[in-house]
């Protein structure tokens, strides 16, 4: 299928949203969509590093699909009559909590959660994805102040960043690599 992705309609710094309204490309709704898209792209990179039999593959694929679905809801102003047909991630927070619990059961216990991102490539990529999801979450909170965002979308972003932290720890553990805990410098007085 041939088609030209460049419509040139955005050359003046505006883009269309659901309902036909044109907004500036730095509008908070567009910022949310951009942050979600960036995080989803990085999740795709993380998935590309896994073989199809990796136990994370089905869950990460589900997350990416749900992110695409929820983006259609974020793109739709709350006062627009026609709501998106794509499903909201209503049960995703619980599902991700269950996944995190299963991971936690395999990890050494720790009370410290300030770890230096890095270690294996997969672990580092989990941290990149985590920080991008956190940015998307912050943008969603800002949008929610202007136009209501479904609570399940906010929960999805919050749980996903937590899950990615747990996945990074799981990968470090599986790789036999030590986690490097950040220790604040003590000021000299």
Main β-sheet description? 2 strands, antiparallel
Number of structural units classed as domains? 1
Q: Low-confidence runs (pLDDT<50, min 5 residues)?
A: none
At the third CATH level, what is the topology name?
Hypothetical Protein Ta1238, Chain: A
Mean pLDDT value: 88
Distance N terminus to C terminus?
A: 69 Å
Q: How are the SSEs ordered, and which strands pair?
A:
Blueprint: E1 14-16, E2 22-24, H1 28-48, H2 57-74, H3 92-104, H4 121-146, H5 151-175
Antiparallel strand pairs: 1-2
Helix pairs in contact: 1-2, 1-4, 3-5, 4-5
Structure description:
With 189 residues, the protein is mainly alpha-helical. The protein has five helices and two strands. Strands 1-2 form a two-stranded antiparallel ribbon. The mean pLDDT is 88.
Write a concise synopsis of the structure shown.
The protein has a single domain, classed as Up-down Bundle (Hypothetical Protein Ta1238, Chain: A), CATH 1.20.1200. Helix content is 54%, strand content 3%.
């Amino acid at each position: 299928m041939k088609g030209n992705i460049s419509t040139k309609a955005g050359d003046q710094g505006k883009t269309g949203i659901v309902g036909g309204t044109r907004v500036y490309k730095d509008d908070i709704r567009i910022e949310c969509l951009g942050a979600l898209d960036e995080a989803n792209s990085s999740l795709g990179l993380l998935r590309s590093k896994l073989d199809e039999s990796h136990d994370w593959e089905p869950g990460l694929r589900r997350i990416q699909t749900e992110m695409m679905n929820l983006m259609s809801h974020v793109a739709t102003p709350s006062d627009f009559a026609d709501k998106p047909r794509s499903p909201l991630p209503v049960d995703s927070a619980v599902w991700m909590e269950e996944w995190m619990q299963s991971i936690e059961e395999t990890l050494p216990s720790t009370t410290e959660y300030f770890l230096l991102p890095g270690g294996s490539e997969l672990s580092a990529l989990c941290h990149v994805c985590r920080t991008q999801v956190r940015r998307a979450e912050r943008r969603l909170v800002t949008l929610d102040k202007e136009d209501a965002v479904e609570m399940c979308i906010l929960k999805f972003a919050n749980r996903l960043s937590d899950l990615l932290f747990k996945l990074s720890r799981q990968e470090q553990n599986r790789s036999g690599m030590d986690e490097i805990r950040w220790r604040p410098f003590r000021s000299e007085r």
